Amino acid sequence: MKIPLLDLRGQYQQIKGEIKAAVNSVLESGQYILGEQVEKLEKEIASYCGVDYAVGVASGTDALLLSLKALEIKPGDEVILPTFTFFATAGVISHLGAIPAFVDIDPISYNIAPEKIKEKITDQTRAIIPVHLFGQPAEMDKIMETAADYNLKVVEDACQAIGAKYQGIQVGNFGNAAALSFFPSKNLGAYGDGGMVLTNDKLLAEKIKRLRLHGGERKYYHQEIGYNSRLDAIQAAILRVKLEYLTEWTDNRQRVAVTYNSAFKENKLDGMVSLPAKKIRDSTHVFHQYVIRTGDRDRLKLFLEKNGVSTGIYYPLPLHLQKCFKGLGYQEGELPVAEKICKQVLALPIDPGLNDEEISYIVKLFASKMR
Ligand SMILES: *Cc1c(COP(=O)(O)O)cnc(C)c1O
């Protein structure tokens, strides 16, 4: 059996007719950047996520960058984030001349450890970026409490977590702003790059709309120095088609995760493999990735590969130990939970279309190697 980590062609086959019609209507319309399709998508995503405003931008990375810029993060400011996340969360901080302040993670949720945030707060600290990693919300009540105590802005990195709920409330409603990514492999993926800022703050939404268009409200008049960071109409039209399926696809991801969990338990492997665990009651996990942990990760990965099952490692090296951040002076051993977990994580195929037989095949491979 051959099971890829992710193959987007299957999903495309399912919705091909609608996608072609949507793309064609944009081609015929003559409006290729922003415009009606983008405005409609912004309204639909805002409604899906239960926020007041959504602003389409060129990528998830830009959604983070423009949010920080709009919140007036400046050179020399410090911004707190987990060390265990995709690079972009940190890269945008450095691009503004600000300084990433890396915090260790919780060993169960793999999200930023809220109790370790305070140790990193200095007079220069201006913001926190909690990441809802793999689709599980970070502990927003504690994070927001700390942010309020120290008067810090909060930008949620919700790039992997569209639609996830924390204590019944959708991610994107906690911080000053939140970033979504429409990178093709994300839960809601375009056929190219795309992203969106979510916010309940009208002035912030307006500011981000200016920043994505070189800082001008109307053409050729600029009140601030912005960027070229627009969502294009073809991607918006594609995303509008896919948004109709997102709830179904998310349900299927959750079903796949439940099936994995019970298969690991039935094979009595849950002692040897740490399964994804829910940290917070009343929160949902949208399983952008299904990530397990095992001490024998590299050998298992190779064995699975040889038997046709592709897996992924998100992420092999925490950000505080990346070469590009050497100048920040972090030492090995400083953020031990993330350092250890990076050596153990393994992402299994989580395609919403995965069937029980395929899941059972994957788990049986684990069983044959581990016992
Ligand atoms: C994908 C991702 C981003 C960046 O999104 P792009 O659209 O690829 O720029 C940022 N943060 C996290 C956690 C992500 O997973």
Structure in words:
44% of the residues are buried. The protein has two domains: 8-243, Type I PLP-dependent aspartate aminotransferase-like (Major domain) (Aspartate Aminotransferase, domain 2, 3-Layer(aba) Sandwich), CATH 3.40.640; 246-370, Aspartate Aminotransferase, domain 1. The strands form three sheets. Strands 1-9-8-5-4-2-3 form a seven-stranded mixed β-sheet, with helices on both faces. It has a two-stranded antiparallel sheet with strand order 6-7. A two-stranded antiparallel sheet has the order 10-11. The chain has ten helices and eleven strands. By secondary structure, it is an alpha/beta fold. Helix 1 (8-29) packs antiparallel against helix 7 (233-266), helix 2 (36-49) packs parallel to helix 7 and helix 3 (60-70) crosses helix 4. It starts with 7 loop residues before the first helix and ends with a helix. The structure holds pyridoxal-5'-phosphate. Pyridoxal-5'-phosphate (PLP) binds next to helix 3 and helix 4.
